[in-house]
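Sat 14:20. Reprocessing the chain from the morning session after the first attempt stalled halfway. Input below, unchanged.
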Amino acid sequence: MKAAGRRDENDGPATFDAFLALACPGLDLAWRKYRRRDARHAVLARMRELGLPDYASYLDLLRRDPAEAAGLADRMRVTVTRFFRERERWQVLAERVLPELVAAASGPRPIVRAWSAGCCGGEEPYTLAILWLERIAPAAPDASLEILGTDIDEPSLARARAGLYPASALREVPPGVRERWFGREGPAWRVADAARRMVRLENRNLMSDPVPSATDLVLCRYLPFTYFTGTRRHEAARRLWSALRPDGALMIGRKEGLHRRISSCSRRGRMRRASSGGAVSRRRRPPSARPRADGHGPCEAAEDGDERLAAHDQGHGGVLAGGPPARRRPDHVGA
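Finished this time. Tokens:
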């Protein structure tokens, strides 16, 4: 018996869910994650633009037109987030990761470089800027933070450049922070100029445009490790790996994992520290966490020759081993 609201593949999809179930797997997309109103509206708008009467017609086009199929993920992109989302992750960043990155930076005036990939309306990079100004700058006044925020959605980037947000975007902001770093403008709140000046915003596609190099901290939450599968996810992980310098760090979402096997290696959180040799604080990675030569070790996320992303638990939310094998001169793309 057929499930309600579904047709056989030969009949074409009757509902948006059925369309996703047929269209997404072949494109390495996790179709259940796109069961959202905004994604449905985006697909329907595209169908109207093309003059297509139903999901079956659009599915047929996706199968015939590689360019249209390649753009489906970007078209259904989720563009909603908020400041200090998963606040406890930011606490770990402030207390443990950022101080280590500052200590590892060289020179009398150390510079930490961060990349917020898929930054939506700027909430994430501005949160990082505020965190730095609140927690790191007072203790390390000679250090500085450069933040690159990238996204493919121009309306989202325009919102980020304006720096004006509804109260709902601030619901996880810690007490006192809103008053110090946001100004009320009617029903909305504008982020302080000091935080905005720390962030450079650019339109870039994670999967096709150049990635920054020698980056100390990459934030990429609820994008490839939520919505991508298979080769697409593998390539996203490889690109994120290539952006990290040795001893850099990757922050992903609390509900995300780098691989289906990751839960056996890191159960306390989703903050991944990175190191060229697989070590954190000069400790060697335990043998049980090392990827096997066949690329299917217990904690592997992606492998491309000698390039690996692998995670294991070091007692503070998990570890990501990655980064290039030799330290490179800092060279932030677009700087």
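Confidence is low (pLDDT under 50) at residues 1-11, 260-335.
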